[in-house]
Amino acid sequence: MSYPSALHDVLDHVIGPAGELAYQEGKFPRTAVTALGRAGLLGLTCSAEPAGGGTDLALAAEVVARVLPVCPATAAVLQSHYAAAAVVEAYGGGWLRGEVAAGRHLCTLAVVEDGVGGAVGSTARRTGGVVALRARKRDVVAAGEADSYVWSSPPVASDGGLTLWGVPAHATGLFVPARATGAPLASATSTVVADPVRVPAEAMLGADGEGSEILVGAVLPWLLELCGVVGSDALHPSLGALARSVSGTSRTGDGQAFAASAAMALR
Questions:
Q1: Chain CA centroid to CA 84, Å
Q2: What SS3 class is residue 117?
Q3: Non-local CB neighbours of 179 within 8 Å, separated by 6+ positions
Q4: How many angstroms separate the first and last alpha carbons of the chain?
Q5: d(C-alpha 158, C-alpha 128), whole Å
Q6: Global pTM value
């Protein structure tokens, strides 16, 4: 089945009914996310080997655009998932990439601090092969529902910039504070707290201190593509906050210029 046909079926039989429930009761659209995974739409932009769709950002943006009027909550989840999946595809381990590609793993971004932008308030302390991450992230889509978070912290050893991590949702020390319910929060957008969460040093995505450049290279192109298809008003607010945050933390001139232009486009 082609991706347009698969999406049509999922929209008609699953996302539509799930969207009604999300709107009326403010419930996370779990059945819609599961159906998108089984139809190959969560792994759409992952490598075709062994299980991904191997498509480009333009098709993923079209998927979001078609889902948006039917279920805005599901569209918000897809926006953050595809952005996080771009980082995982480029820098994640083989098992994680395979799970995302196969549609069995929902990932999301946790990179905007609950406070002033950048990595203010976060800490990353390494002891042997374990790193303790302490932070409070805001506007995390699918908080408590995703399988893992692309998480930002200050560098462990280098000076300046950010470092990215793949943090499993089940990791000890990670929790989502109690949140209100209702239709506007059906995407499970909330704060996620690490107090602290301990991850193996191998959970680092990319090199220490190069997280801003990774976000510029992997995530911001997706946001700009998405902005061009659905318009900036339809983007989740945390994505605009991400662009503005990266524009202030990127250490290279090219990265700062690109992130700043993205932040302007997403306002």
A1: 4
A2: coil
A3: 143, 185, 190, 191
A4: 37
A5: 17
A6: 0.87
Residues of the chain falling short of pLDDT 50: 1, 116-119, 182-183, 254-255, 257-258, 265-266
Cβ neighbours around 252 below 10 Å, total? 14
Count the neighbouring beta carbons within 10 Å of the beta carbon of residue 162: 27
* CB-based burial label for 61 (10 Å; 0-12, 13-18, 19+): buried
Contact residues for 95 (Cβ-Cβ < 8 A; gap 6+): none
What pLDDT, on the 0 to 100 scale, is given for residue 118?
45
What is the spatial distance between Cα 82 and Cα 183, in angstroms, rounded to a whole number? 23
Rounded CA gap, 148 and 132, in Å?
A: 16
User: Which residues, at least 6 apart from 254, have a Cβ–Cβ distance to it below 8 Å?
Assistant: none
Q: How many degrees, rounded to 5, is the angle at CA 214 between CA 258 and CA 114?
A: 85
> What is the predicted pLDDT for the residue at 92?
93
Q: How far apart are CA 20 and CA 71, in angstroms?
A: 8
Measured from the Cβ of residue 48, the count of other Cβ atoms closer than 10 Å reads 11
* Predicted local confidence at residue 258, as pLDDT: 45
User: Phi and psi of 198, rounded to 5°?
Assistant: -110, 130
* Buried residues in 168-202 as b, exposed as e (16+ CB within 10 A): ebebeebeeeeeeeeeebbbbbbbbbbebbbbeee
Q: Say if residue 168 is preceded by a cis peptide, omega within 30 of 0.
A: no
